[in-house]
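User: Sequence recovery, please. Input:
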C-alpha cells in the first residue's frame, strides 16, 4: 500500500548527519541475546507492522513510502546501520544487538515514542516467549494475525479539514542554555542516564501535586533558575504531548507529538515546590484541552503545507530549517515522557531501558522512561558539559529523591541517508 508523506515531511527535511531525526531505544536484557531467536522475533514483529516495512521513493515531486519486502536488518553491534541505505535494505527501521543489549532504530518522522513502544511490546513478546520457552500473556499486545484497521494505518492529519485556526501568539526568546553556559565550542553530543525508583518518585509526585513529566520539567526549571538567577529571558520548558487523544485516533502509528509550554515565571520562584507543581499542572491542564492541542496540530499541518509549496528539496529544507530555528529560540529545553512502558510480563527480563533521540537544537532534551519499577531520565545534550545535569541532581538531592547516575555515553545515532545527498 503506497503512502504519501505528510506528517513525515518536516522531520525528513530537518534531519542531518549531525542531528538525525531518529528514535534509538536501547534495552539491556537479563541474559545474553540469542541471535536466531531475535531474527524470528523481528520477522514476526515486522509482519505485524507492514506500514513500517517501507522504502522512501519520489514520484512527481512527491515523496512516498512504497512497500519494501526486503528483510529488516539486524546487525551484531551497538552502532547499527544507516537508515534508508543499502546497509538497511532501504528500510527506515533497523535492529542491532550485542551481548545482552537489543537496540531499535527508527526514523522519528515515521513514528514517535508511542508507536515505537508498540513495536517493542510485540518484539519482546515474541523474543521472550521463544528465548525462555514460556507462554506470556498477550493481552493488549499487537500480534501477527490481527486485523489492522484504517485508523492504525492512515495519517489522521493529512486530510483533516476541520481543524481550528491556530492562535498567533508571539513568544519572547527563552533563556538559551548554550549561550548562558558559554558552551558554543562544546560540540560533543552526550547522554547522561539517571535512574530513580518508580514507586518513590510517584509518591513524591503525589505529595507535591505533580506527575512525572511536569515534575521533571519543574525540577529542571528550578535547577536552571538557580544557575542563572539574574537572567532576563524566561525559562521555558516544552513538555511533549501525544496528539492522538485530541484527534480521536488512539491507534494511529504516525509521529503525533505536540508541545506544552511550561514557563517558570518570576512570581513562582519563592513559592513552595507543591505550589509550583500545582501551577505547572494547571498549565498542562489548560494547554492539553482538545481545542488547544488541535490548534497545535493545525499549526504543524500549516508548516507542512508551506514546505510542500516549495518545488525543490533545497527550498523545502530551507523552510523547514528556518521554522525549526524560530521554534528553538522560544524554548530552553524539552522534556518527553511517553508514559509507563507496560511491556507486561517481558519486563522481568529487562535490566536497563534508554530512549535516545537527537537533542533539541537549543541543546537539551530529557527523555523519561518507566520500565520494570524504575524511571530512567536520559539527558540528551548537544554538548558534553555536566553543568545542567549536576544542577538537576542537586535539586533531586535537596528534595530527598534518591538517584543513581548510571553512566555517561556519547550520543551516537546512525545516519539517515537522504535522497538529495546522494
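Assistant: Recovered sequence (422 residues):
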Amino acid at each position: 500500500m503506497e503512502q504519501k508523506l505528510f506528517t513525515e515531511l518536516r522531520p525528513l527535511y530537518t534531519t542531518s548527519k549531525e542531528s538525525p531525526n531518529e528514535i534509538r531505544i536501547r534495552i539491556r536484557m537479563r541474559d545474553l541475546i540469542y541471535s536466531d531467536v531475535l531474527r524470528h522475533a523481528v520477522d514476526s514483529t515486522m509482519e505485524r507492522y507492514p506500514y513500517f516495512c517501507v522504502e522512501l521513493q519520489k514520484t512527481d515531486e512527491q515523496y512516498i513510502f512504497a512497500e519494501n519486502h526486503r528483510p529488516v536488518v539486524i546487525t551484531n553491534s551497538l552502532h547499527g546501520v544507516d537508515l534508508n541505505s543499502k546497509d538497511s535494505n532501504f528500510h527506515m527501521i533497523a535492529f542491532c544487538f550485542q551481548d545482552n543489549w537489543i537496540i531499535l532504530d527508527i526514523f522519528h518522522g515515521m513514528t514517535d515514542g508511542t508507536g515505537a513502544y508498540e513495536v517493542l511490546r510485540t518484539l519482546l513478546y515474541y523474543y521472550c516467549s521463544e528465548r525462555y520457552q514460556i507462554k506470556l500473556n498477550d493481552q493488549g499486545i499487537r500480534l501477527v494475525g490481527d486485523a489492522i484497521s484504517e485508523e492504525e494505518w492512515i495519517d489522521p492529519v493529512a486530510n483533516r479539514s476541520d481543524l481550528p485556526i491556530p492562535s498567533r501568539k508571539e513568544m519572547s526568546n527563552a533563556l538559551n542554555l548554550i549561550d548562558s553556559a558559554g558552551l558554543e565550542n562544546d560540540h560533543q553530543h552526550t547522554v547522561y542516564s539517571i535512574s530513580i525508583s518508580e514507586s518513590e518518585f510517584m509518591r513524591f509526585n503525589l505529595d507535591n501535586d505533580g506527575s512525572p513529566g511536569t515534575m521533571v520539567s519543574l525540577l529542571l526549571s528550578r535547577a536552571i533558575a538557580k544557575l542563572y538567577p539574574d537572567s532576563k529571558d524566561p525559562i521555558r520548558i516544552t513538555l511533549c504531548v501525544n496528539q492522538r487523544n485530541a484527534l480521536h485516533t488512539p491507534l494511529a502509528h504516525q509521529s503525533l507529538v505536540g508541545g506544552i509550554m511550561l514557563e517558570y515565571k518570576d512570581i513562582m520562584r519563592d513559592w513552595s515546590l507543591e505550589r509550583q507543581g500545582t501551577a505547572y499542572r494547571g498549565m498542562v491542564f489548560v494547554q492539553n484541552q482538545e481545542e488547544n492541542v488541535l490548534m497545535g496540530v493545525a499549526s504543524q499541518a500549516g508548516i507542512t503545507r508551506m514546505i510542500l509549496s516549495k518545488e525543490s528539496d533545497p527550498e523545502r529544507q530551507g523552510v523547514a530549517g528556518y521554522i525549526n530555528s524560530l521554534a528553538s529560540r522560544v524554548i530552553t529545553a524539552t522534556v518527553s515522557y511517553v508514559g509507563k512502558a507496560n511491556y507486561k510480563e517481558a519486563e522481568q527480563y529487562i535490566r536497563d531501558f534508554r530512549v535516545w533521540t537527537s537533542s533539541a537544537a537549543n541543546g537539551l532534551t530529557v527523555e523519561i522512561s518507566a520500565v520494570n519499577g524504575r524511571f530512567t531520565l536520559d539527558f540528551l545534550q548537544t554538548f558534553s558539559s555536566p553543568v545542567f545535569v549536576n544542577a538537576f541532581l542537586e535539586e533531586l538531592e535537596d528534595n530527598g529523591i534518591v538517584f543513581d547516575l548510571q553512566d555517561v555515553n556519547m550520543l551516537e545515532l546512525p545516519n539517515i541517508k537522504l535522497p538529495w545527498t546522494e
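DSSP finds twelve helices and 15 strands in the chain.
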